[in-house]
Specification:
heterodimer, A: about 425 residues, alpha/beta, D-Maltodextrin-Binding Protein, domain 2, five-stranded mixed β-sheet, globular, B: mainly alpha, MetI-like fold, 14 helices, about 75% helix, flat, ABC transporter permease (chain B), ABC_transporter_permease (chain B), transmembrane (chain B)
């Protein structure tokens, strides 16, 4: 082995350094040929439950083939990818799912999306809950970016076997009566904890925090981190502080299993029955089923959420301007977000419809979920959905939410005391909002 | 194969005799310029994939550039001044350097030791030598995911083993030094064998007679290793250090996949294991989508690597003379 010359080393160094700087993800190309059968790519995250609907649509529209990407994936990994595709002008699917928290950011740059109002979407207004429809519009109301898919009506999902082990009632009516308020929920948690079942009462304080925040904000101010003039109000909105304080109570009582939400450990904890309850927006039922696996079928059930109402999450379908099959993609998006499409998705994976017609449909109202001990999910979720009070989201909602939830996480892990955690939350939120 | 023995083709002879001066000039041009032609592909590729992104990144870093936005505003050095005062950025610098030191030092020592073992007479020597390279050919993502599971707080095997010997469970992801250790373990697992092979190659180039005369003088194995092997390996060691520096300062996949769940890009609740490349990603992409700021991070990373590389070159210069004498 000889001595490497300095020049060669410098060259190696330069190449390696620049290789880093040039690194960006590249999107795929559907490579559809003109004239031949059209392949529509649908980009999703998590579980949208569209599989059967695709087959049905393909059968009704010969010459169209639908491919879904990203099923089961993490929203955190999906959103930067989608943004890169949009920025690069290439790579995005023909129909893309956008979570409501991110839609706010995309609305600031509507030029990336097809204006669905130009394609007859205005007639569909009545098919959606008023606020869900408005959510897809840009601030000036002139462009419709997305058609609503689902809303995230709240409940609490719990494991009956762990409740029985702790001597608590297991019947969903009785469980719902245990916790009219979040304080009651904490009290039940303390009883559960005293029985040493080997499981925690809940999965992660951040999930519960977000649930309480969205519920409190919906019932009081109508906004969370930003007010409706897009001013950052993390430290002055009483809803944020109240949710934080309640979450600190939960943490102080030692109720959280401290599994980082959406981490590998969190997924394992489902499988190993390491926590008894989880804040459960309608779409979470699909996540639970996926994570806990078929062995846990019939061990889970669904009860009312403490406090009242609240909406967490829910998405929209949009068509990027870069799509080469816009007309076909728009038709598909309309189909998937129609009352019929929303009912089909609900029956498949549980996302709660945002269409009032679907919410009144017997197929939803009378539906039960076999995985969750035949819980009447239609009644539990759909009942509250029509009266849901939306929470306004500001321009950098996602970045600010990340900082605040992270501060909650440091308190949960004992790295920060509650007072420090609050200071971190507000200071880091300001920093993130300014970026 | 048929070999033509008729001498030079008549055409060539004729041309040469007819236009000797032109032929001569062409030959001179050929001698003078064709070497440049031969090296052009590298420089072309470097210009497209190296220089251009480098310059463009710098251009972007001077703007307030929203990834999706239109008409980014020119802000001069504002991103840089902001970055200099950004505690999270410096945290990522410390993490990067910390993980770099924590992984490189044991890695090179272990590689040296492994190479020394492999350099002895062993049964199935080639098998052993190939075996040490196996970790290097596995995918980084697979390694990172497996290690992230091994180092789990509650369901991880490492904590289970620690529990057997009575040590309390460690929250590997929420403890700075623990996170650095776990990530370093990943890096070492992958790269120790690779460096061992490089060292082994250099060791085999050391003349046997040096060892023989050392044995005659009564030097034991350890003495031979420290007084002959290591000094003669110096240039190789420096090479390995530089390559590890470049890799270590750009560490991304291992720490990113080690942290799973929401906001994994932060590298833990208090950014315990967020490296510079992760901080760059966090700013340029989700959740901030501030391309200008992210590009500024990329340029400072470039500067840091240049500084560390310069230090390496200085060391190489100082040690190079002494080592070169021993090199064949």
């Amino acid at each position: 082995m000889g001595v490497f010359s300095r020049r060669r080393l410098t060259a190696i160094a330069l190449v390696t350094v620049t290789a880093l700087l040039g690194t960006t993800a590249c999107g795929g190309d559907d490579g559809a040929a003109d004239g031949g059968p059209v392949t529509l790519t649908v980009d999703v995250f998590g579980q949208f439950g569209y599989e059967k609907l695709y087959r049905e649509y393909e059968a009704a529209h010969p010459g169209i083939k639908i491919v879904e990407r990203g099923t089961g994936g993490n929203l955190d990994e999906y959103s930067p990818k989608l943004t890169q595709w949009l920025a690069a002008g290439k790579g995005a699917g023909d129909v893309v799912a956008i979570e409501e928290g991110l839609l706010v950011e995309y609305k600031a740059n509507p030029q990336n999306f097809v204006n669905l109002l130009d394609h007859g979407a205005a007639d569909l207004k009545g098919n959606f809950l008023e606020w869900k429809w408005t959510g897809g519009l840009t601030a000036d109301g002139k462009q419709l970016i997305g058609l609503g898919t689902d809303v995230g009506g709240m409940a609490i999902c719990y494991r009956k076997d762990l409740f029985a082990a702790a001597g608590l009632p297991t019947d969903r009516e009785a469980v719902s009566k245990l916790w009219p308020t979040w304080q009651d929920y904490v009290r039940v948690g303390e009883q559960f904890k005293a029985k040493n079942t080997g499981a925690a009462f809940l999965d992660a304080a951040t999930n519960t925090f977000n649930t309480i925040l969205l519920q409190t904000a919906g019932n009081t101010t109508g906004y969370s981190y930003y007010d409706t003039t897009d001013k950052l109000v993390v430290d002055s909105n009483p809803a944020v502080r109240q949710a934080y304080d309640t979450t600190v109570d939960i943490i102080d009582s030692g109720l959280s299993g401290r599994y980082g939400a959406w981490s590998e450990e969190w997924v394992s904890a489902f499988k190993q029955a390491k926590f008894a309850t989880i804040a459960c927006p309608a779409w979470m039922t699909g996540v639970i089923e996926g994570n806990a696996g078929p062995d846990a079928k019939g061990k889970w059930d669904i009860a009312q959420v403490p406090g009242s109402g609240g909406n967490w999450g829910g998405s929209y379908l949009a068509v990027p301007k870069q799509s080469r099959h816009q007309a076909e993609a728009i038709e598909l998006a309309k189909f998937l977000t129609s009352a019929k499409g929303q009912i089909g998705a609900f029956q498949e994976k549980g996302p709660l419809p945002s269409s009032p017609q679907a919410l009144e449909d017997p197929a939803i109202v009378n539906s039960t979920n076999a995985y969750f001990s035949d819980a009447p999910v239609g009644k539990i979720f759909a009942a509250g959905a029509k009266s849901l009070k939306p929470v306004y989201m500001g321009p950098k909602n996602q970045a600010v939410r990340t900082e605040v939830e992270n501060a909650v996480r440091t308190v949960e892990l004992g790295q920060r005391n509650p007072a420090q955690g609050w200071t971190d939350a507000t200071a880091n939120a300001r920093k993130a909002a300014a970026k | 194969m048929v070999v033509q023995v008729d001498g030079p083709p008549p055409g060539a002879v004729r041309t040469r005799s007819r236009r000797p001066e032109r032929e001569h000039r062409l030959a001179r041009l050929d001698v003078r310029y064709s070497p440049y032609l031969y090296v052009t592909p590298f420089f072309l590729l470097f210009a497209i994939f190296g220089l251009y992104p480098l310059a463009y990144t710098f251009w972007v870093s001077l703007h307030d550039w929203d990834l999706l936005g239109v008409d980014p505003a020119f802000v001069g050095a504002q991103n840089y001044t902001q970055l200099m005062a950004d505690a999270d950025f410096w945290n990522s610098v410390v993490n990067t350097l910390g993980i770099f030191v924590l992984s490189t030092v044991p890695q090179l020592l272990a590689a040296l030791w492994l190479a020394n073992l492999l350099n002895r007479r062993l049964r199935a020597r080639t098998t052993w030598r190939m075996a040490v390279l196996v970790p290097n050919v596995t995918s980084t993502a697979a390694v990172a995911i497996v290690f992230a599971v091994l180092f789990g707080r509650e369901f991880g095997m490492i904590n289970w083993l620690l529990d057997l010997v009575g040590v309390d469970a460690i929250d590997w992801k929420a403890n700075r030094f623990a996170a650095w250790t776990a990530i370093s373990a990943m890096v070492d697992w992958r790269w120790t064998g690779y460096n061992a092979l490089i060292f082994l190659a250099a060791m085999q180039a050391i003349p046997r007679d040096l060892y023989e005369s050392a044995s005659i003088d009564g030097a034991g194995r350890a003495r031979q290793f420290w007084s002959i092997t290591v000094p003669l390996l110096k240039p190789t060691i420096i090479f390995a250090v530089i390559i590890s520096t470049i890799g270590g300062l750009q560490l991304f996949t291992e720490p990113r996949l080690f942290n799973s769940g929401t906001n994994a890009i932060r590298g833990g609740p208090l950014r315990e294991s967020q490296t510079m490349t992760m901080y760059m990603f966090e700013n340029a992409f989700a959740p901030h989508y501030n391309f200008g700021y992210g590009s500024a991070v990329a340029w400072l990373l470039f500067a840091l690597i240049a500084v560390v590389a310069a230090i390496n070159v200085l060391i190489l210069r100082r040690l190079g003379g002494g080592a070169r004498k021993g090199d064949r």
